[in-house]
Amino acid sequence: MTALRVALIGCGAIGTSVLELLEGDTALAVAAIVVPEEGVAAAQRLVPGVPVASRVPVAGIDLVVETAGHAAIEEHVLPALARGTPCIVASVGALSAAGLAERLEAAATAGRTQVQLIAGAIGAIDALAAARIGGLGSVRYTGRKPPRAWKGTPAEQGRDLDALTQETVIFEGSAREAAQLYPKNANVAATVSLAGLGLDRTMVRLIADPAIADNVHTVEAEGAFGSFELTMRNKPLAANPKTSALTVYSAVRALRNRAAALAI
């Protein structure tokens, strides 16, 4: 069987981890790594033997996977979809930007292809999306992370994260607001929203907790189907504590499902 030729957008913490996990996979071949022009030389040193470019190649690519954020979706994913190349998007939080989800859908429709949003660091997305069909009443997401995971975010305004001695609620509101204020932490909130009630009707609470070392995600949903509560305690990605390691595994699973004869 011919290997699926993949263009990987981004060579940061998630992208490099995806590359490591795909090493030796005969069903998937990373045919190109796409980074900004100024990062091409560094990426070439990091991954010798893999072509590095500042644009997704127009030919020779079967699938695009994005691990680089909002700008990459605008610059690379939308054009790839429009010319008919299927894409996998990891930066789901970027879809909190007004109109971006609709633009992705329109580009995929124009190219007669599909864009897939990965579940990332959270589970039960299949159950939530199924429950929406029957009628969802409420969905609430709570994200609890160590204080260091909130550094460089609005959580630092008016408080010293290093001095926290007990759990502190740093945000409470809609998923859209959460994703806009905490874009590097709120992919889960956006994913839960898009599978369920949408960005404006999904309630979010974000917590800095000095008593934990893992990233803890809880989803509570009620509706015609009944109710469920899911809690996941994810190890943070060593290279980036704002991201759960499960995000990388989710991206690799999505890639392997594209190449597999039997997928689940």
Q: What fold name stands as the CATH topology of the largest domain?
A: Dihydrodipicolinate Reductase, domain 2
Helix segment tally: 8
Rounded to an integer in angstroms, the radius of gyration calculated over CA atoms is 19 Å
The CATH first-level class of the largest domain comes to Alpha Beta
Main sheet, how many strands, which sense, barrel?
6 strands, parallel
Overall CATH architecture of the largest domain: 2-Layer Sandwich
Number of strands: 13
**DSSP strand (E) fraction?**
25-35%
- Spans with pLDDT under 50 lasting ≥5 residues? none
CATH superfamily of the largest domain: Dihydrodipicolinate Reductase, domain 2
Strand order of the largest sheet: 3-2-1-4-5-6
Order of helices and strands: EHEHEEHEHEHEEHHEEEEEH
> Can you tell me the number of structural domains?
2
The coarse overall form would be globular
Mean pLDDT: 93
> Percent helix among the residues?
25-40%
Please give the alpha-carbon distance between the first and last residues.
20 Å
How would you describe this structure in keywords?
264 residues, alpha/beta, Rossmann fold, Dihydrodipicolinate Reductase, domain 2, 2 domains, 6-stranded parallel beta sheet, 5-stranded mixed beta sheet, 13 strands
